[in-house]
Amino acid sequence: MAKKARNRKQQATRTAQTNQGQSLLKQLEQQCKRLPNNPAVWKGLAAWHLQEGDIARALSPAKRAFELAPEDASIAVQYAAALRRADQINKAIEVLSLAYNTNQKDAKLCNDLALMHYNIGQYQAALNVCDSCLGTNLEQPGLLQLKASALKALHRLEKAKGLFEHLAKLQPADFRHWMDIGNIERDLGNLDRALECYQQAMTLSGDDASAYSNYLTTLHYHPDKSRDEIFKACKLWQEQYAPAWQETEHKHLSMEPEKKLRIGLISDGFKRSPVGQMITSVLEAFPKEQADFIAFSSNDARDDITTRIANCCSEWHRITQLFGPELFEHIKSQKIDILIDLAGHNNGSRMSAIAMKPAPIIIKWVGGLINTTAVDAIDYLLSDHIETPTGHDQYYTEKLIKMPHDYICYDPPEYTPAVNTLPALNNEYITFGCFNNPTKINKVILSCWADIMHLTPNSRLLLKSFQFNSPELVKRITQEMEAMGIDKDRLILEGPSPHQELLRSYNRVDIALDTWPYSGGLTTCEAMLMGVPVVTCTGPTFAGRHSASHIKNAGMYELVTDSFSQYKTRVLELTSDLSSLSIIRENLRTIFLQSNVCADKEYANTLSIVLRTIWRRHAKGLATESISCTETRDKVQQDLSPPLQSEEKKSREISSINPNKKTFVHLCFNNMHSEPLLDTLSNGKYIEDYNSIIFIEKTRAVVNYDVDITKNNSAYFFNASDDLHDVIKTCLHSNVTAVFIHGIFFEWQLKAIEKINGEKPCIWTLWGGDLYGNLNNNDFIGFVNNNISYVATSLDDEIRIFNDTFSPKPSLEIKYDFGYEDISVPEIKEKLIFVGNSGDPSNNHIDILRSLALKQDIKNYTVIIPYTYNGNDESLISIKEEIKNLGIKNVHILTKHIKKSDYYKVLGSAEIYISAHNRQQGFGHVAACFYFGVSVVMRKEITVSGLKSLNPVWSRVILKQGFFAHDYEEFKKAHTIESMNNSELTQRNKSLSRRIYGRQSSADTFAQAYKQLSDAV
């Protein structure tokens, strides 16, 4: 009863207030009618509407008041405020500027005008207003704060720091001044001093998290901070600053899994900035029918990128004045399905509002993406396999979405200048360059650069950034390099330039040197755009691997190193061969622009699939789960929907294991190369003394293709999200002897291995890409060393390569049955040439095609390029353009999956198969060609981690088993294709193959491996 009485009383109070307000409104409107030329009454009416939040109705009376009294500062301030809240920023500045002419000492007017200039990036105009109003008066904190901020934005750092220090004395309890001092110390590279300033600010800031955000960001620049130390600091934000909130219910949203999604984007970077240049082309290419984008912008600055992003969005919300709970409520009211944060802890951060969960799914993407956010409300983090390689997941509280290539998509500006010739050819000395933020330059990396310069006589180092307008910074860098023996005459330290001019400055640089532990990002892309190769050493966090991702995805793998020793070696290798360096410069822009770093359509389509997948999971009430969009380090087109087979069997249906036989479990994924394993282990037909159970994670590696499990009663599909626990439980059954993992590419495999290791032996069956793609991945190497018991392969030399990198393990020889016995092919071959075995760029299709184009008899042949998996649209376009340019006729690119039997019939009828990987050469295809009597061309030597090595397939099948194949280098020199076809030798291969290969032969290798493991265990 008491509660009802209170409610009635509150309702009565609200009603009275409403009535009183309406009465006041009528009075104001009547006054405006009686006194239409009195600016004060119009001002009063505008004030009433502004207070009520009715901006549209406030504009007219505010405008009328200003027209009547344009010299009245308070009226101008009111009208400008209404215009600003109506998103008419330029008009608001125009109004204030007019009143400013007669009110240059009015603090409120000057403050508002300067702030508006500042917010849209007109820093000099903001400074001019502050100076005019302040004069020599240094006792107005608001204007002083604005003046100092404008000076900082204009890169006059020492003067700005002096004002901030004065403000800290003037207002000792205001934490913002210490934070601003820390920001300048950070910009000048004084990291320890910056951290001290942030800590001082944190003692004054209460529950405001901005000082801690800056502290956290700065830790990533510091060369002495470990990954564990930084990870701990990341988690502390959630513990100390995340607002208290209960799990937000979003019942107002439709949970329809296939609906058009409302995707929110929140950032202050919707302009020409790292964010703008790395998301815009993706938004433009995103399938329009899949989603509407809603922008929440915390920055009023606009440029050409802003316009392009706005054109991709159905709604644009200014949130410059919205923070915390107010912003949370605003975003929630917009019915956002998925919110993507593009700010992190950087400028414009709204982490406190995001931490309150304003949308059911929240993703962190580019923009302050330097590490885990460790914020409970953020579900996913958009990454790739280089930024977060295998073994890194433990340092992220979010579920990782690993994109197939780069985690961003770079969009080059239209005004990009031309690339010139290599400067060293004219200068007769090497010019190294780094245009990264100097905050990333520390004594550790300077020492490395000094060593390189000592080993490169007469070389120069060009450093360019806005901070080099600071005499203090120039002095520090110069003195530190001189202490390391590098004369200041060899250093060129330059301040800022307009963007096009900055890009043109790369025409003075031969080799770009990346920073450590915080690498370049946008600058790395811009260097490659301008033909300048970048050498990087990976750092301990996400921030330290930006360059590695961009460089590797541009195809320059050898320029990514994991130690300073390797870093120096790579740089010196480049300096030692100016001819090769010139070739790189001539071609790097083209390579870069055609690479996966700039593949906007492919990225957009993959992102669309990913967003739809996580929304479907949410709509079904399923838990968040990491998503990997690749089969290897190169993309395969991945369908994230369930398999088509209605016969799908769940692992949980297994109720018992035959206790009379030892059991071996095989963990596979849904790829056509898993199917031969099912044939080999088919229902105990060939291996009678042991049980074999095969679990296949059902996510498709190829669109509309599923492994046919009907042929093996012991094969089961499972879902890693829901069934992995059951699968692991089966693996740990008392009668299971060991577990085979066939190719290690996915996080679920790592989780399974960690759970199984120690209880049962784990055998890594090498697939090729999983080995070669991880030879420089220290985290993966450590994981394998600690968790894998045996290595299995059919190639002895792969064991050698493994042992050269990993801790040596006992090895097992196994062979898959590829089903050749079931396929008949014509004895007389057709004039067909197979180029490569997949769409994987490592097939080097274009190099093979260029060699074929030079053959005198190419017109007599039809070329077939298998491209059903591991391919991407950009590479396919490049291949098609190359075919057109070369004038090769009769080329067929297979982009749709066909049945294995049909595929082998076509392959078996071909005259020649050509492989040119710089790894083992698609052993399944090579073996099939031997079996069917097809001539084989492959590399005798491959390049692994920059070193020449004997191809493991060549070592096994040619040197040890006695098969015959042509070396790829021999093929390139040949005048005709016909000369590569020797029917006598192919017949010999055919006969030999029938003795060596076959289902029973393959099964025997598993039986022997089972026995070896049983005896050992």
TrEMBL record:
Listed Polar residues bias regions: 12-22
Keyword Glycosyltransferase: yes
Record keywords: Cell inner membrane, Cell membrane, Glycosyltransferase, Membrane, Repeat, TPR repeat, Transferase
Pathway: Protein modification; protein glycosylation
EC number: 2.4.1.255
Ranges occupied by TPR repeats: 39-72, 175-208
Amino acid composition bias (Basic residues), ranges on this chain: 1-11
Listed GO MF terms: fucosyltransferase activity; protein O-acetylglucosaminyltransferase activity
Pfam families tied to this protein: Glyco_transf_41, Glyco_transf_56, TPR_11
Region listing for Disordered, in residue ranges: 1-22, 633-654
Any GO BP annotation: enterobacterial common antigen biosynthetic process
Residue ranges annotated for the O-GlcNAc transferase C-terminal domain, each copy included: 250-411, 425-606
PANTHER family according to UniProt: PROTEIN O-GLCNAC TRANSFERASE (PTHR44835:SF1), UDP-N-ACETYLGLUCOSAMINE--PEPTIDE N-ACETYLGLUCOSAMINYLTRANSFERASE SPINDLY-RELATED (PTHR44835)
Family of the protein in this entry: Belongs to the glycosyltransferase 41 family. O-GlcNAc transferase subfamily.
Name this polypeptide is given: protein O-GlcNAc transferase
